[in-house]
């Protein structure tokens, strides 16, 4: 599969690439294309419906939660020298025959190559009273969360809201629920499935998560849905659940998944299913039109997540700028849609899932589970031999174990060698041993002064040879004369030696070490006395 | 009694030399950097003066193929004749010079002049390219000037927080740790390192009572980590907007660029838990003067810099410091911890392929005119820009037929060292100036014996930009001579149009004139002046000035006085993990040794402390590979294999192995490292490559490892 990327641009007019949608994926595509297109073979234009500067959509949950300043989400503006950016303008129709796109402001833009990155919008299910159909508008204070405007409106309502209902217990719904709770609004999450985050989690982990959410003050109701949205004078007042319960609410967030924005493509007669249908080279049924991101239905599925959209953006940009790239393109396909890593971004909850879950593991897989509901922890690991027989981490569900989740992500992403016993993966830092620092308990061979390589044994020997103060020990062994960091330990040793032996060098300089009584329990060397200590002269470094 | 400084690292600890039976003995001296401390290397430094295999006579490879002693006249005449022949056949650029960051300012200056006017070659560079170039490039780009620490080291003690990225100072410069004491006591030390190095251990609660943070980032992800910290600074509203508005340009670009590095993405890439990232960001921000703290300092070392995106990584560190409003404020700022003894001065006076003395650019006509004026030559005679070290080594045996090596042991210290060895053996002429028969000297056609630190006068510029005096305590052995004398003689034999002085104080005066008006201005300094001040003086020190301990308090060195913030994009390691090479190799130093070990491996006490190379690996990985502590382990990349004993420790990530790079032979780490370089600085990626690791007796397809060098050299 090749894309016929032009080999050379010499003398030719640049090819016009028109990108529709300035969301996370369209933005990334433009950036990668401009970066790779060193000899300016392409003239790039970007059309985006939202009026804002491009922003990081996935951080909207953090903004909603008051965890992130708005300043932290603006993305770099496309280089004005390379990209013409039409902001706050929507594409309303594509005329494929003449190769132009009609814009909402009445103008048209011609293209040689069209890239659709129109993304998705929140899906609002047909619930009575929600007003999704044509009879009447949506009651006030019912929202979705997809855009910066949505986020602002919800945050504004949250100031006065007394109780919020979130319909949908997926990742986004839970992030939003935690965010609202953080803003002080009591929240009930309603989910039709038997447990929250059913797409990613098995029941045991989901139950621990629900308990953790309850701790944070987020109420979760599962196995039921909203039967009716009740409003008075167009203002939301409550929702009635399918089990008959009524929950008073003056703020509602509908978070029931997304639908791809495909109207433009459908109107142009392109093949559209749940998304714009594209092949492995991200090309639609028209070879001049590509689709990437949430609006695209690639052979791998429609995960609705950022990472795969970014991979597509990068893949398409490279196919257009690197003539040799196309052949390898198929190999860059990431994990299957259902196996993409997902993290719940909410203060107080640390949850990450990736790959195979425990319930779908094969009989030959090793599955390690840590179940600690009372500690609000649950970890499932799935380990499977790869085609070379090396065990690899193919699935992770990690809740409440922040210390290890980053390590597990690395092992999953980079396929690094696993411990023989995968249980070790559950230990933070791979199980770093504690080292004893008490001068009394440490073994004689322990290095006390790293700078000068002086061991406890050396210090004890110096003391026995008459060095009864830190200064004297320093003079004999050079301990403490580098960074000085071991001074406390040397002090401790000297104090302990002096205390453990009344006939110390200070009080009786004439007493040789052999004359002093020694019991194993108090022996500075733990039972044996060493004489093989190198004595060093402070003014003449030994050369032997 | 002679007051001088340690010959090794850039801390340049003060020491006193006293005549003794064996020559001189060393005692530490109270100096601002070491406060009376010395590490084991410093204590034993006098041993190298009396190394049993010191070279005391010039050697030329004779008919027999062995290096044979000859007279100075013969040796220099031979060198001059060979240089003439090569240049006549292949042009001036066919002879190259490879310098070192351990040479005094005087020698570094003279070497640059020698290359440009006596050899008239554009091909000169130095081993500082391996250690300082990325930080230098980033510093120049951001601040308009590159001085490792733009403030005295002692300022660090006043800070509430210190972020150390990729630097193991507790092993490489132990006395420096004294300056971290107060910060550690406040729990303010943050160390980024894949290993629980001696420095990372300084953050352990048990070691300080307070406990700092150790961020154990995956090798090659330092930049992502820094971008993640900056993201948090923005997200949590911790940036010093007033400072940014008044003193920087480019903040808007940088702020937007970090919108792409939100915490959980960064945690995923770096392997550092999100909670630790958040704590680190707040620790630094709370310490910043703008938020009422006593100060915060960001420091980088080779771990952050020796990458193909090293310049950008340092830039990210600088951006973080600028966003917090640190540079130019009390007990605050960004700094890079220079490694080699004169790594700072070595890069200021003309050893770099594109620079003339005073940190002037060789392609700047004004700079050429000024320096040519001092040298008394026609500016048009000066060659143009050369190429950075790795590229230069790549030309050996090809475009470059003859090579002078001064103060460097490239056969051990260059990346992909086996390839360097192959290319060096293709040379028509290799001249090595050294005081011991290092690995590179053993391959030379001509070896010229030179003086060591305690046998010469000169100046060094330490990691703070403090210029200090190196003083002579005893005479050199045998016929060893200073490079200043050698270069002067060779220049004469090559009919150099410029004269070469030999007295260090006179050479320094010339250097001072050449640097006048440059970025690193030494024109207010002289040996006599430095002798009069006990603690040295900081450059820039134009005539009439008392030097500049603290830079940037009012303005940065760009014409508009502002610091430039540049948005960066992290790159992946050039040689990243593969299914058959699933482990990262990182390299570094141990306390007892210095650089290629040519000096420290000749000190018995240091060899006792650290006798041989090793491979540090985690017990999990060791068990997987059926490796026991002490087993020989083979570490292999497409470039070569190194075999060394296993040292099993939980102090390293399970996906990473560590090797020190001080040893030649079978355990030579640089046989394995990658010579991919940073596109801006030319610095090679020593600090990460993908390897396979196996017990040596099980390792299949072992690349042929070089035999340890055994050649005898007559003394
Ligand atoms: C609050 C929130 C949190 C999320 N968290 C995560 C997460 O943690 N991890 C993750 O992987 N994913 C997350 N997602 C999903 C992620 O944001 C999407 O997968 C990603 O944004 C898809 O990018 P896109 O560019 O394809 O679509 P979008 O970002 O939706 O962008 C499409 C853009 O195109 C514009 N557009 C549409 N039609 C037209 C037209 N006709 N003319 C012009 N412009 C048009 C739209 O206005 C929009 O700006 C989250 C989503 C939200 C809302
Ligand atoms: S090697 Fe460095 S730290 Fe050690 S004594 Fe010498 S200058 Fe000081």
TrEMBL record, chain A:
InterPro entries listed in its UniProt record: BFD-like_2Fe2S-bd_dom, BFD-like_2Fe2S-bd_dom_sf, FAD/NAD-bd_sf, FAD/NAD-binding_dom, NasD-like
Biased composition (Polar residues): 531-544
Pathway involvement of the protein, from the record: Nitrogen metabolism; nitrate reduction (assimilation)
Keyword Iron-sulfur: yes
Cofactor entry: siroheme; [4Fe-4S] cluster
MF-aspect GO terms: iron-sulfur cluster binding; metal ion binding; oxidoreductase activity
Domain of life according to the entry: Bacteria
Name under which the protein is recorded: NAD(P)/FAD-dependent oxidoreductase
Lineage: Bacteria, Bacillati, Actinomycetota, Actinomycetes, Propionibacteriales
TrEMBL record, chain B:
Organism for this UniProt entry: Nocardioides pocheonensis
One GO MF term attached to the UniProt entry: molybdopterin cofactor binding
InterPro entries found in the cross-reference section: Asp_de-COase-like_dom_sf, MoPterin_dinucl-bd_dom, Mopterin_OxRdtase, Mopterin_OxRdtase_4Fe-4S_dom, Prok_molybdopt-oxidoreductase
Keyword Metal-binding: yes
One BP term from GO: respiratory electron transport chain
Lineage: Bacteria, Bacillati, Actinomycetota, Actinomycetes, Propionibacteriales
Claim: Flavoprotein is one of the keywords in the record: no
Domain 4Fe-4S Mo/W bis-MGD-type, residue spans: 1-51
CDD domains (UniProt xref): MopB_CT_Fdh-Nap-like
Keyword annotations from UniProtKB, A to Z: 4Fe-4S, Iron, Iron-sulfur, Metal-binding
Protein name as it appears in the record: Nitrite reductase
GO CC annotation terms, alphabetical: membrane
One Pfam family here: Molydop_binding
